[in-house]
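Course assignment 3, question 2. Fill in each field.
Student: A.L.
Task: Predict the tertiary structure for the chain below.
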Amino acid sequence: MDKYEYKRINEIKPSDKKFCLVGKIRKKLDGRIVLEDEQAEIELEGEFEVKEGEFVRVFCSKANSHFKIDFLQKISQEELNLFKRFLSLYKMVKEYV
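Answer field:
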């Protein structure tokens, strides 16, 4: 069973089957959203009650040639800041964990 691995948008590889992204909704389209992080943006398939500008964590899987959202979680600016802090700390100790 594949797990959802956290990635930045520019780290997604064609071989990735499941991944988790954190970012801001840049645009909401019919049945799709455009998600952006600090480095890139991606179009994801899924119909969710979100607004442009909201921060979210999305769990995605590959479906043929596109990516679909399996689950979406809204997060606050404070949660996003804590998550970024966690990532920076984890990066420092990753080799020891």
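Instructor remarks: Residues 4 and 19 are 4 Å apart (CA to CA). The domain at 5-96 is CATH 2.40.50.140 (OB fold (Dihydrolipoamide Acetyltransferase, E2P)).
Grade: pending
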